[in-house]
Amino acid sequence: MSSVFTKIINGELxxxxxxxxxxxxxxxxxxxxxxxxxLVVPVEETDRWTDLSPTVWRHxxxxxxxxxxxxxxxxxxxxxxxIIAGFDVPHTHIHIFPTDRMGEYDFSKAIAADATDPAEMxxxxxxxxxxxxxxxxxxxx
Length: 141
Known about the structure:
Blueprint: H1 4-9, E1 17-20, E2 24-28, E3 38-42, H2 54-75, E4 79-83, E5 94-99, H3 118-132
Antiparallel strand pairs: 1-2, 2-3, 3-5, 4-5
């Protein structure tokens, strides 16, 4: 059975994409630590990051680094957080989010999916896309 991320990648479920290529996609999480929290996900459905091929792992991290730079610029944060957790969805993903302090690395303080402001989420995605110069599907403009 496909993961929820595979369904988002395939367009079966909605997603706020900020980046897309043949190997990797990036979209906003529905439960952000802060607005601008992006998941960088390989297209290939692999549960554990340690099982990715070196090529996919390297590219996933290159994209994550670019997304991190964009998040910092878009939100004026001092850093971009980077976390691999992987227990909530069995599909490798890297969390990238704007941050200014360690206390923001706390998933227990994430905004619940039903409490996020859709306009804030759309605005966050657009800010990141503007820096990356991508369209609403995450493709280069």
